[in-house]
Write the structure tokens for this entry.
Amino acid sequence: MPRPSSSRRVRGRFAPAVLLVAAQACASTPKVEGLALGNLPPGVAVAAPVRYYAVTPSSVAELRRAFRDGGPQVDGRRFAGSTTWRLQWRWEYDGGMLPRCALRNVTVRVVAEVTMPQWRPGGEADEATKLWWRQFSAGLMTHERGHAQLAVAAAGELHRALGRLDGGSCASLGERASSVARQHLAALAERQAAYDRETRNGATQIQAALAAGAAF
């Protein structure tokens, strides 16, 4: 819809949100904090809430069973933690140089929701179990943060790619921009899948954290 302006700038609409679920499960629980992801690429906004669900066993074996039997599901499997992500992109058309159109005010937004277990033991846990929990949680969070960081990096790449587009009519430019966005999303989906394959859905990072804890 044209804006009431002499620049003939046309506001772009939000592209359809794309939601991909990482290879670990998620649960619908209250938001309690935000995930720190470091410096963000220019033109990229991020919302990264961390949500928790309660687990109550007091031993390592019971905690593992709680994840396996009661954890949320993704594709029929249950996991201890999860990351879901979606990208939203927006631009405005600048048709002041018709018939040569350009994209202006390009923004890309990442919503990365991380779900983690929160330990609320129903009984007294020994020191070894407490140490295991701290190291396990650290390894799991490392993995989930990695999923979110991949999404943020892809958003930065998409923003740069969209910012380089111009030429032709605004209608054709919009089609090109949407095609570019879809290509970036497909590439990101493969990166996320490859990350899970490389880390065995976080198992390597959790094992490294547990090993580091056992060294003390």
Summary: The chain has a mean pLDDT of 81.
